[in-house]
Amino acid sequence: MIGSSLAVFSVYYVGLIGGEEFGDRLIVPPFFAMWTPNLIFLIVSIPLLWTARQAGSTAHGGDWEEVKETLFGWVGKLRNAI
Using CB atoms within 10 A of its CB, is residue 10 exposed (0-12), middle (13-18) or buried (19+)? Predict the structure, then answer.
């Protein structure tokens, strides 16, 4: 859990620093440069939150297959829809 939190924070921090550089050099408008990491994380988080909300909740916990299905089950559904 700590490792995944550090990975998410690192990706977000690199995105913010990169956006700041692009904004300072006027490669991208500063507003978009700083808000792009937030928008990317929003787009990634919506399907994950949607699948976590739909998963059955139990006080007993589940196995790793249940965790994998909750996090990545939307990929298979997306492939079947296409």
Answer: exposed
